[in-house]
Amino acid sequence: MRFSASVLTLYPEMFPGALGMSLAGRALEAGAWSLETVRIRDFATDRHRTVDDTPAGGGAGMVMRADVLARAIDHAAPPSDPRPRLLMSPRGRPLTQRRVRELAAGPGAVILCGRFEGVDERLIEARQLEEVSIGDYILSGGEPAALVLLDAVVRLLPGVMGNELSGEEESFEGGLLEHPHYTRPQEFEGRPIPEVLTSGNHAKIAAWRRAQAEKLTRERRPDLIAPETATGN
After folding, report:
1. pLDDT band (50, 70, 90) for residue 166
2. Is 137 annotated to bind ligand?
């Protein structure tokens, strides 16, 4: 089963962007996954190809119209399409590595990139969109967020990463941030590689890495630490 992504956007020229390079780009070229862009404006019916209107009840900005977006979604994903329908939105549930793995194991995703003040709520309800956020900040549109989500997913697809273990020993995979990494030279500006890493004792190395991961997580992301996760104080 190949992962198939359909991105609904006002700016299809933003894709594949960074996804056309490095691991994701090589996988795209090799057919390990596919990317379709759908220009939302093509589904407007007036001569000005209008996709937004003023918010009901007043207020600043504009809101993306439900009818135009519904036609675009129905074109990209008819009711029989099993792919989840995602809306990149700052009010969505935070994207986690667990959700990324779930998406990577599935048939793909239909991703709507919002713009302006947001999307008509009726469209979200009628097309059962899953709102997804990549962080507690505001972007000019959902396109950069969609690129982030797809990059996170594609790298986990079978055969994309050269070393499959790379995806299992990273931040968030075990509920902790990743341990520090070192490589040559042996000493850099008076800072040597920690001795344990050159000891050849794999049990000690594993214990050191676990302790360092816990330390970093406690310092930077204590919200990730569960009582049963930590091995020390």
Report:
1. low
2. yes
